[in-house]
Amino acid sequence: MNQFIRFALLSLTFSTLAACGGGGSGGAATGPQKTATVTFAILGNYSSPISGVSVKARLPEGVSVALDGTTHNLQQPGLSSAKGLAFGTYSASIRQVDLGVVNLSQSIGYGTFATLQLTVQPGYTLSAQSFRTLNTPFPGFKAVATDPNLGVVTTDNTLAGRITPSLDVTFGY
Does residue 46 lie in a domain region? Predict the structure, then answer.
């Protein structure tokens, strides 16, 4: 019986080892990048409700943005937000998006406030750093909150340095 248990354990060990190794899905993605999803967030520690956020961000060469017809307005669902009404424009000449989210009925809060879907052009390979380098610091950022004692406060005054923007990028293949 003891020999049978030893044989079973040895067989199980070899089976496990044989199943390990190359070809797993956790490795680097292969093939060309097709999409990039930019997630915009705000970080901070101010306790009053945030009712509006706007950010200007530059995009690297090699991505395109879905625009609404012949205007420079960002098209939905390319720009979206679960925190409020999202709106924005794109200037191709300087590769800059100006986007914002407003919610007058409840706080936008901290964390992700908007996502922007982009198409990566054939022949380009980008990294998250490609986006971060262009936006350190961001070309523009503003947040608005309603403080019970001070009234409306912004990043131009009371909120300066207390609320900051960030971005993250994921790629689709």
Answer: yes
Sign of CA dihedral 8, 10, 16, 19: negative
Structure tokens at 105: 């009925």
pLDDT digits (tens, 9 = 90+) for 36-81: 999 999 999 899 999 999 999 999 999 999 998 888 999 888 999 9
**Whole-structure pTM value:** 0.80
Cα 170 from Cα 165, distance rounded (Å): 17
- Distance of alpha carbon 145 from alpha carbon 106, whole angstroms: 11
CATH of the domain at 130: 2.60.40
Task: Give dist(CA 87, CA 61) in Å, integer.
Answer: 22
Q: Is residue 110 part of a domain?
A: yes
Largest CA distance in the chain: 80
- How far apart (Å, rounded) are the C-alpha atoms in residues 86 and 143? 14
Domain hosting 116: range is 32-172
Contacts of 171 (CB under 8 A, 6+ apart): 29, 33, 35, 36, 37, 120, 126
> Is residue 141 within 8 Å of 57, Cβ to Cβ?
no
For residue 18, the 8-state DSSP code is H
Kindly tell me the sign of the dihedral angle through the C-alpha atoms of 86, 87, 91, 94. negative
